Amino acid sequence: MANATRSIFLSHSHADKDFARRLARDLTAVGIRVWFDEAEMNVGDSLIAKIREGIDSVDFLGVVLSPSSAASPWVQREVEIAMMQEIEGKIVKVLPLLYEKCELPGFLVGKLYADFTLESSYENALALVLRRMGHDRTSMSAPDVDNRTAEFHSRGLDVPWSELIKGSKER
User: Fold this and answer.
1) Catalytic annotation present for 86
2) Least crowded by CB within 10 Å, which of 90, 95, 105, 133?
C-alpha cells in the first residue's frame, strides 16, 4: 500500500480555503491525489452528485476543522457520507485535521486528529497524515515521525503518539 497512489478528498469551509489550498499543494507535492472542489468541479455540475462521486473515488476524506467548518452543513454532509463508508467498510476513511480550535462535531468526538493549529506543528501534523495514508516516508520532505515525539490529540486529551503506539502494542 505504501507505493500505491493514495487519494484524499479535502472537506473544508470557504473560510478555510487558504489553508486547504496549502494542504492540497503539500499533499500533491509528495504524490497524493487530492480531490479539491475548485479543481474538480465545473460550471453546471451537480454539487451533490459531484461531491458524492469525489468521496466515493478516494481512500480518505480529510476534514479541515474550524469554527466555520463545524457550522457548515456541506462539510457535515460530506463527513457523514464518509463516516458511513467507514462504518460499512470497517476501515478508517475520515481524517480529522484541526486547523482552528473548535467544538468537534458529535460524530468526530473520540477520533484522533492531526493538529495543524500552530504553524510550528504544520510539518509534523502533515507527516502524521501521510503516515496514516500509508505514504512512503522516504520520499517526503516532512520530518521522520519515528524520530520525533509527534502528538495526536483527542478532544481535551493530549497523548504523545509514542504512547499511543506503545499502548496498542501491549494489547
Assistant:
1) no
2) 90
How far CA 99 is from CA of 49, 147, 154, in Å, comes to: 27, 24, 14
In this structure, the number of other CB atoms found within 10 A of the CB of residue 18 comes to 9
pTM attached to this predicted model: 0.75
| Alpha-carbon span 157 to 171, nearest angstrom | 20
**Burial of residue 166, with CB atoms counted within 10 A of its CB: 0-12 exposed, 13-18 middle, 19 or more buried:** exposed
- Per residue in 65-85, pLDDT (tens digit) is 999 999 999 999 999 999 999
122 Cβ partners below 8 Å, 6+ apart? 116
pLDDT-based confidence at residue 106 (cuts at 50, 70, 90):
confident
Q: Which of 38, 40, 53, 78 is catalytic?
A: 78
Partners of residue 160 on adjacent β-strands: 151
Helix (H) or strand (E) holding 134: none
